[in-house]
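Dear colleagues,

As part of the handover before I leave the project, I'm documenting each prediction I ran so the next person doesn't have to rerun anything. This entry is a single chain, and its sequence is reproduced below.
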Amino acid sequence: MFCDLVGSSALSARLDPEELREVIGRYHQRCAAIIVRSGGFVARYMGDGMLAYFGYPQAHEDDAERAVRAGLELVATASTLDDGAGSALRVRVGIATGLAVVGDLIGEGAAREQAVVGDTPNIAARLQALAGPDMVIIDGGTRRLLGELFEYRAIGPVAIKGFGEPLPCGR
């Protein structure tokens, strides 16, 4: 799962850097709590974005469902957070399901993180970039695993940079 804050560049232009740090800090704390409570693992913070794994370090039969429920809760929760300028925060979320290998620790100190290899995180990042504000986009693999648990709107095959064939997606 990739989750990203909408309009953060405009927000950084309106707020003092210390105020922006507080807003993003509150946002990260709330998002991380939702992800962890849903059985996910926050792998990396990237500015105002987050990468989370579901099915790591422990796999669950319903990890796809957990990820989607967490994504929907992230959207709902962001709207309750003030951006420091009197408006609610908005997010976009991309979720992909598939194989990935979470491996050795790389980097040093605060930059230390576990490397992830596979198409799945790349697809999730691309889907997040395609999502509109307050939207969760899932790939076809996630959709197949979920069956009829949620209401979906197919957005059709989507051409994703780096992938030869368009991928079926929905929101």
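Strands lie at 2-5, 40-46, 49-54, 91-95, 101-106, 113-117, 135-139, 154-158, 167-170. The longest strand covers residues 40-46.

All the best with the project,
I.
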